[in-house]
Every structure is written in structure tokens, then in C-alpha cells.
Amino acid sequence: MLKKLVLVAFACLAAWPLLVSESKTPPSPAPEPPPAATAFAFPDARDNPPASWTGPVFRLSQNYPTTMPSPETYPWKAIDFKTKPMEYLRAVLAYCLEGNITSSGDFDINQNTTRKWYHAPWMHPNREFIHGMTNERHSRPGELHPLQTSPWLNWAVGMYNAPGGYVIGRVWANPTSPDPSLARFPDGTVGFKLLFTQAPATQVPYLANSFEWLTDINQVSKTGKPPVQMRLLQIDVAVRDTRANSTTGWVFGTFTYDAQEPGSTPWQRLVPIGLMWGNDPTRLFNGQPLTQTKINPDLRMQQHLGYGVGGHKRLNGPVDNPVSSCLSCHSTAAVSLNPPRPTISGVTPPNPTNQQIRTYFRNISSGTPFSPGYTSLDYSLQLQVGIALFVRSGGFQPPGPTPPGPMTATTMASSARRSAAAGAMIKPMERDGTPPPTTTRARRPRRRRAR
């Protein structure tokens, strides 16, 4: 018994230094939480404003909703776009402008207290810094008006409402690996675009007293040439409407400014050109009246419209290519980076065959790719342009053989830096096939040659 007590006492004494040491050691502090991740911000524009600039500066609206927004009461839902197309269009335009027109008559989505609007990212390599506009197709002499003798540049900026912003945010949730397979816009999505032209009212009289914006088309920070005054010419709207699911799922519409319209502000002098929810694929060659395009019968100015036979032309705006149509052009919004394939042109090739015309003027359902092996961007050319610019800047390119079919987030995330050849294939959609004129030659040199 004594022996056991001695052994226990010895063990306690042996452990005493350790117990004392542990008792003197302060408890380890709780691990600090990891630093908060810095929110990624997509660039706003191509250039920073010059140091002396005091005017407006564009800010990309990119706080995209992370959950599906609650549906609004959309005013156009009470209107049948097939039987009352102009009323439908005016309801959509009123929704788009509500809250975006400031007290001074300017346009600014960042001051809207009614609803949020969002821009598509990665168009900044082409965005000017004042209003975030990008170069559109230029207008050839005579396209805008018989008095137009010079080609003129057109620039534009587009926005999406909250359902559209939610989808854009999902596609670009990983800013280094966008996932185009998530480009599926829900019912109620609205996109709209303001298009401005450099053309003066002396050559296009219906532009008199239009809304004007200064636009940095000359890159003042690099060339020293000042911004150029441009006039609002056209507004495009696109509505995801399930009532059009039997054709494309989308309703596209176009407005033009008309100085002859009544109204105290330029925004009140916008006239609907028409709308379309299908390409009338059964009426491509027979000259029969169109049933899926409705053109405003009360238009007072010349409009070139789009493809048609026998005077029955599909919807297009004054800036758009007359060989195409709104839905035909936007149906090509798709990418194929896995493996890379050339970007699809937005318009038919010159002197197209009948089969090529049939291909471009199909009714392609929302979310369906234009061609096999491509991933649809659901009629969003802004997503297509952004992803194309991302790839060409040094984005992803699969390093070797990859599974066939549309790319996924997994295959894109594992891809390597692009090769020069692949980057040349992936480019923003072509609308015209000809390079735009320079801003300096769009005026005086061409006039001298005409003399």
C-alpha cells in the first residue's frame, strides 16, 4: 500500500512542471476571421476622363441581383401585342423611361428611384467614358434621309431591368470564367437601348431639337480631340414575353425620334416604328403580307426597315442593316469556345442563297442556339460582345481536345490562356461587313470628293 502511494506521489511530482507550465501559458486567441473578400468591379469604360474634365462620367451599373427579383406588374401584360402592337410598345417605352429622366431632362439610370437598371459588363474596351456608349453600325448616305450625303457614326448604350440583371450577374458571377449556359432570361425581362447619331439635322431634318449627348468618340485623352455632340435617333426595346413562345419567346420593338411629333420634350416625340415576335419564315420569298411583324401605319418619315419581298418588310430601325431584321440579327447571339468556332455574323452574307436566307430568318426559340456546337445567349448581343471581348483580351482557350457540345462552367474554368488563332476567331458580332468611317473623314473629305 505504501509503495502504491509513493508511486502516485512521484507521478504527480513528475507532472507538476508540465501542469505549472500549461497554467502559465495564456490560452490561444480565437482564430481571426478571414478578411472580407473585395467585391470585384468590372471596368467602366475604355479611358479615364482627362484631369480637366468636369462633365458627367459613366459608371457601370453592376450590382446585379443575386436572387430572382419579385415580378412586377408589367403594364404591357394587359395588352395583346398582336392586335394592339403600338399600344404595347408605348407601354414598354413608358416603363423604360420611368424614373430615368431627370428633372433637367437628362437621362440617368443611376438617379432612378423607381426601379434599378443594369449594364452588361466587359464592353468597356469599346465604351467611351462620358455615357458608356459603344460604336454601332454607321449609316451610309441616303439611309437616314434623302438629304443625307455623308456617312455618319452611330453610338449606343443599353440597359436591362432587374430580371435581366439577375441573369447577367449569374453569367458573370465568376468574372474570370463567365458561364453562357446560364443566359436564360425569364418572362418580364426588358432590355432597351438608346442609339445616337452624329448626323446633323441639316442632312436628317427629323432630328431637329432631338435630345443630345456629348460622346467621346475621338478619345480625347489620347488624341486631344474634344467630345462630339450626338443626337438621339432610335430606341430599341426587347421584351421576354411567354405569349410569344410559339415563335421566339421575344417581342422586339423600335422607336425613332420625329421632330414633327407634338411634345414639349424630345422624349415625347418618340414614334414607334413597329414590333415583331417572329420572322415569318413561311413568307420569305412569296411576297405575302407578314403576320409576325407589325409596322406603324402612321409613320411620316422614310424608314428603310429590314428584309422583305414585295414591299412587306420586317422590322428594323434606321441605324440597322436593311438586309436583316431585329429578331434575325439577335438570334445569332451565341458563343462557341469549347472548342472555339468563329463568331456567327449577325447578317446574311452578300448575295445570299435561298437556304442562307432560310437559316437567318427562322423562328428560333428563346435559349436555343443558332447553330450546333454553340451556346445560346438568348438573343443578348451585349452578352455576346462582352464574352468575345473577354476572350480576345487573353481569356480562356481549351488547351487540348475537349468534350463536344456547349461549354460549361467546369470546362471553362479549367481552360488555359487563348492562342492568337483562337482569339482571332472569337470576336464581337459583325453587322455590316464593312469598317466604319473615321469621325474626321465622315464629314469634310467625303464632301470634297462628292464635289
List the SSEs and their pairings:
Elements: H1 2-24, H2 85-97, E1 134-135, E2 154-160, H3 162-171, E3 190-197, E4 212-215, H4 220-223, E5 228-240, E6 250-257, E7 270-276, E8 293-295, E9 308-309, E10 312-313, H5 326-330, E11 334-335, H6 354-360, E12 375-376, H7 381-392, E13 396-397, H8 409-413, E14 416-417, H9 420-425, H10 444-450
Antiparallel strand pairs: 1-2, 2-3, 3-5, 4-5, 5-6, 6-7, 7-8, 9-10, 11-12, 13-14
What does this structure look like?
The protein has 451 residues and is an alpha+beta fold. It is 20% helix and 14% strand. The protein is built from ten helices and 14 strands.
Sum this structure up briefly.
By secondary structure, the chain is of the alpha+beta class. The protein is 20% helix and 14% strand.
